[in-house]
Amino acid sequence: MSTVKSKKLQVGTDASASNNFTIYQPATPDGTLRIGVGNADSPTEVGRFDSNGYVATNAPAFSAKLGTNQSFSSSTFTKIQYNTEDFDTNSNYDNATNYRFTPTVAGYYQVNASVRFNYTGSAGDNIQIHIYKNNSHWDCQARLNSTGNYGNISISSLVYCNGSTDYIEIYGYSTHGSSLFDVSANNPSRFSAHLVKAV
């Protein structure tokens, strides 16, 4: 009985390395089995198995919240500036300039957002939250709020992104004369997304 020991097994012999796969262990074994695109001499990792099963290594996910109150004009679609990141696994969310998520892996993303409206002293009217893809409307949630000084609204949608140029932003809208997107420890305004299925 004999045992063949190797840290890398190339599957495929195509002239283009990107058409081949390599199954391997890292240089210093750590209990994981890696899957890479390319030849055995220089694979690019795309996933791994550990004792819990398969783990994708490049699955973008982020969560951000509104760190300061944001004023906006009545009956005007206004981008919500979620400027405080909770996490951003692949550095795909811009929390300082454009306040947008531009994932670098093509696939289907679960997008979630919420916003707390503050009517600054009187009851609000129509409030809305919108998902925009590439600066165009994708999905919307709306409701009428006729009592109280605050209104909370959320949205969730599955969105395809091409992994290069597609981006996601969140917009708010209110017909109330004086409103702002409100920061609240109990009802934070938040924006998050994560990869559900790569393509």
Structure notes:
By secondary structure, this protein is mostly beta strands. It contains no helices and 16 strands. The strands form 3 sheets. Strands 6, 7, 9, 10, 13, 15 and 16 form a 7-stranded antiparallel sheet that branches. A 5-stranded antiparallel sheet has the order 1-2-3-4-5, with no helix packed on it. Strand 4 (44-50) and strand 5 form a beta hairpin. The two termini are 42 Å apart.
Question: Summary?
Answer:
0% of the residues lie in helices and 50% in strands.
CATH top level of the largest domain? Answer: Mainly Beta
Radius of gyration over all CA atoms, rounded: 23 Å
Q: How are helices and strands ordered from N to C?
A: EEEEEEEEEEEEEEEE
- Low-pLDDT ranges: none
Number of domains: 2
Number of helices: 0
List keywords for this structure.
single chain; 199 residues; mainly beta; Jelly Rolls; 7-stranded antiparallel β-sheet; 5-stranded antiparallel β-sheet; 16 strands; 0% helix; 50% strand; elongated
